Amino acid sequence: MNFKRKLIIAGFGSICMAAAASASGAKLAQATMNPQGPSLRPSETAPSATLADTAQVPAANPVKFNDAEILGWVLVLDSNEIAAADAVEKKKLDKDVMGYAKMLRKQHKDDLSETEKAAKKAGVVPVSNGMTNQMRSQGPQDLTSLTALNGEDFRKAYIDAMVKGHSDALETIDAKLMPNAVSDIIKKRVADLRGHISKHLEQGKRLQENRAAAAE
User: Fold this and answer.
1) How many domains does the chain have?
2) Which domain holds residue 117?
3) What's residue 45's pLDDT?
4) pTM of the predicted model as reported, rounded to 2 decimal places
5) What are the residues whose beta carbons fall under 8 Å from the beta carbon of 127, sequence distance 6 or more?
6) Residues 100, 207: contact at Cβ < 8 Å?
7) Predicted confidence band at 171 (pLDDT cuts at 50, 70, 90)?
8) Exposure of 202 by Cβ count < 10 A (0-12 exposed, 13-18 middle, 19+ buried)?
9) CA-based diameter of the chain, in Å?
């Protein structure tokens, strides 16, 4: 693996969320309140929680998520994954990688839709904390670096990044999301997401192993 590709893989993991989750001691970006996205009272009807509606607020504690921050993280995760899968389609790679990317795009679109429904049902407006803001801004930058590659370099960098990113996403779900979810609706949404992320990781690892075996 050349040095340039190693750098891209290390950075592109944040398309799923890696850089934000593992950046110990890094200064998190600060965000401002979105006047269009106030917190809901129990008597109010929750609007459909789209990524564009996600309010941006600084996190007092970037390690502990509340329900609104959990939803915000999931929406950005899904959006970044969809963008990455779209990039693969433009590259027209082998059927195994194309099939993997197509599966990721569909499942993350479905996850995004289910998260919007869960937010509305729970009466929670998704918000971004410092970790989520960093993930949102870093993902497109890393995607730009990845798409500069072609052929086998792109294929390997994409699969390696998906494995790293999904692994880091599972760590964040287990360490920060599941322990801090309060609403039963949000707990279920996170548990369902975890199941999907785990399957995506295993499929990515199989693609890595198959390519390594073919190269021997």
Assistant:
1) 1
2) 3-215
3) 35
4) 0.73
5) 37, 54, 55, 56, 57, 68, 69, 71, 72
6) yes
7) very high
8) exposed
9) 63
